[in-house]
Amino acid sequence: MDKLRITGGRPLEGEVRISGAKNAALPIMCAALLSAEPLRLSNVPRLMDVATMAKLLGQMGVEVRRDSPGEIFLQAKSIADPTAPYELVKTMRASVLVLGPLLARCGQARVSLPGGCAIGARPVDQHVKGLQAMGATIALEHGYMTARAERLRGARIVMDLVTVTGTENLMLAAALAEGTTMLENAAREPEVVDLARCLTAMGAKIEGAGSGTIRIDGVRSLSGAAFRVMPDRIETGTFLAAAATAGGKVRLTAVAPDSLDATLEKLREAGASIKTGKDEIAIEAAGRPAAVSVRTAPYPGFPTDMQAQFMALATVARGTAVITETIFENRMMHALELQRLGANITMQGTSAVVTGVDRLQGAKVMATDLRASGPTCALRPGW
Ligand code: UD1
Predict the structure, then answer these.
(1) Among this protein's residues, is 198 annotated catalytic?
(2) C-beta separation of 39 from 202 below 8 A
(3) What is d(CA 211, CA 202) in angstroms, rounded to the nearest whole number?
(4) pTM of the entire structure?
(5) Per-residue DSSP letters for 306-353?
(6) Ligand 1 atom closest to the CA of 122, numbered from 1
(7) Is 296 in the pocket of ligand 1 (CB under 6 A)?
């Protein structure tokens, strides 16, 4: 779908069943590379990135089947070609997640170095540094990371910064390494915890996922497993932010409210009434929201993947909000698009100062990145 046509001016009413988390499904699919036995996943979202990952794994010789909606069967009896080609990596940076498990399982991997992307440089030096500490040799040849290791060894790895896929890549590799790996300054995102749960179900020995220090005791081999992917906290947050922006009454089911603390707190600050149950959230909002400032940070801080949605909310809020991005250097492109709708936004370095206006006006806008495309269409009565 290349274009969305949205007619604003209505509060949002209704119920949405939230999909499985993209950012959990992608690394979990890569866990299939670590075992010759089947990995049966459920609650897998139907998304282009999931299809791309299925294609990438399929090209390596992994059997990949979509059994029924939301269910994927993966089995890597053997790996014919441990290569992630440029053509796929350039369309999905998360392809780099195959590097660690390929090295651990096959002793070699050839993975295209991801280039730049719309939201910034996004290097993978921490993935490489960690694997080197585990005994891998990695060379850059013709745009590819060519990695080799007899058998990876456990190591103590202190990451220079908090990286989500970096933590996941190293956790995947360490699961089959010889000895103990300690990941320090690890990402604490719920998707890291979900990957650890899946690996544990496959027989891996992992402690501390969800904290800044993860201990992995490598095992010789992993078995198959059946695993249900966690709900998508960013999709959940996006619907909640839409309801808080446009007003209305929305119920979201199949969610994980515990993974959304920072987002829920900010929505309440904006004046929305929110009720959470075990696996559902109901939101009610009326009138213009109050301005709320946010500053992105690694989990449990406010997620960068919710930054654009809160900028959209701020464009129609009562008062002025400061939206600060600290994770990616170029993730404010949506500000320019929101200005085309009549938003009052001034850029100050890595912050956007947004003063709410009473009404936005419909206009043609561009979806600058995945997370920004929903909220750039933020609906507000009066468009
Ligand atoms: C993941 C999420 C993405 C989210 C991001 C931050 C997936 C598939 N994607 O992306 O939706 O926006 O976390 O929550 O899970 N960095 C380095 N060197 C590295 C690795 C990262 O400098 O080796 C930097 C990045 O450029 C960025 C910061 O670290 O500035 C955080 O990036 P990272 O957590 O790695 O993001 P991703 O894992 O790519």
Answers:
(1) no
(2) yes
(3) 21
(4) 0.95
(5) GHHHHHHHHHTSBSEEEEE--S-TT--HHHHHHHHTT-EEEEETTEEE
(6) 26
(7) no
CA of 298 to the centre of ligand 1 (A): 10
Instruction: Tell me: pLDDT of 191 over 70.
Output: yes
Separation in Å, CA 237 to CA 28, 133, 234, 244: 22, 37, 5, 10
- Of 190, 276, 266, the residue nearest 232 (C-alpha): 190
The response to whether residue 305 sits with its C-beta less than 6 Å from ligand 1 reads yes
Cα(284) to ligand 1 centroid in Å equals 33
Q: 9: CA distance to ligand 1 center in Å?
A: 36
- CB of 63 closer than 6 A to ligand 1? no
Taking only the tens place, the pLDDT of each residue in 29-60 is: 999 999 999 999 999 999 999 999 999 999 99
Residue 141: strand pairing partners = 144
Find out whether the peptide bond into 85 is cis, omega within 30 degrees of 0: no
Average pLDDT value for the chain: 94
pLDDT in tens, 252-266: 999 999 999 999 999
